Sequence to fold (190 residues):
Amino acid sequence: MLNIVLFGPPGAGKGTQAARLLEKYQLIHLSTGDILRGEIAANSPLGQAAKKNMDKGELVPDEVVIGMIERKIDANSAANGFIFDGFPRTTAQALALDKMLATKGTPISVMLALEVEKQELIDRLLLRGKDSGRADDQDQSIIENRIKVYNNETTPVKDFYAAQRKYQGVDGMGTIDSIFNRLCCAVDNL
Ligand code: B4P
Fold:
């Protein structure tokens, strides 16, 4: 199985590149952001609670996202592999994911971490905010809070995978095609 953690700050292009990678490598896409937005659209109790965190650019509690991912992995036991997009975002989530995958005998193959300059992240998200309807993309101070939360709570996840020799940084600046080629080179060289 090929299990990829696609990592990077908000607006790094995780969702954009995951869509292409899953088609090329026939993987299942597990985006916690997309699953949470689906819960909000369905107005479920989970969605109503998550919206309060997401609109402020804060993380949703670990136990909520861990439970969501576990259900999705179980529902796709015959998959060729998974792209984890936007998950894990804390060391607690990374530990929980390793534990879940160990019970299935299929560990993470690699973490591909998109590296993008801060101003480019802000520009991309504000541009998306013009038509995404996402409250967290429309206000520069919320975007800056998301980047701050990433720096404080999420970057330690890099060290977690680096300690397992699974971390690979990938230049996330440039065209979507050129970044996709860099990611494919990294996957093909595994
Ligand atoms: P996510 O949905 O993961 O959102 P993101 O970080 O904004 O997305 P991404 O980096 O995928 O952006 P994209 O490719 O679309 O999270 C949203 C919120 O959900 C979080 O803040 C948090 O509250 C919550 N959440 C999610 N997962 C969680 C977890 N595990 N634990 C706790 N809370 C969680 O790219 C952005 C834009 O850039 C797009 O418009 C795209 O078209 C553009 N773009 C991409 N590549 C480009 C390029 N090369 N050049 C120019 N533009 C580009």
In short: The chain has a mean pLDDT of 96. The chain has nine helices and five strands. The longest helix spans residues 118-132.
